[in-house]
Amino acid sequence: MEVTWLDSNSWLITVGGQRILVDPWLVGDLVFGKQPWLFKGEHPQPRPLPEDIDLILLSQGLEDHAHPPTLEALDRAIPVVGSPNAAKVVEGLGYSQVTALGHGETFTLNQQVTIKAVPGAIVGPTLVENGYILRDVATGASLFYEPHGFHRAEIKQEGPVDVVITPVLDLTLPLVGPIIHGQKGALELVDWLQPQVVLPTADAGEVTYSGVLISWLKVIGSAQSLQAALQANGSSARVLSPTVGQRVALDLSPRQPKSAVV
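That's the Zn-dependent hydrolase sequence above. Prediction below.
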């Protein structure tokens, strides 16, 4: 299994010989609701679009996960799997192969990788977006991805999982509370899923952020403090912090393959 962090919540994951582009924001600015004064994210330069993509995987329909300018720049013939909300976004952009995956449902990519949707971030009063469990059909190597640190106790039944991509920082807003659950959520996931590797997401590598909202955000935690907490708890999980654009081959010990519902 190989991973490349493309900054923020964007990842290129190679598993089972399949190249999966996750929550890509690679070109253009990141703005919510066309209000740059409130929040604006910028790359110092556009990131190159990865080639030979087998699937685009979207956890949410919001702009920082289903980023319209990036999706417009990618080949609309690439298959897409996403939450129902994300599926509406890409369908509106003209993508031709779109699968909306509800919680508990599984998609099989080219008979090589299964992708199971699990409950993820809570957006608004009622909408629950997606997290995902990816499994290599041949080897059983597995990965969990959810970008806001939201998960339910039912995720325990999916363990063990080899790699967890999750936030390690807590982000809170006054009167709103946590919008990203980092340290506590990551510790909980490690306890439940027993991963070999933890990869931080939702952090800023090269991107810069501006706007009124940034001054209100309170940030707590770090990859180093999470590693220290894991060691104090007796966990052998390694917290890796990849450099943006650096391909990382994950050295995983083999485990007994876990069957998946197809």
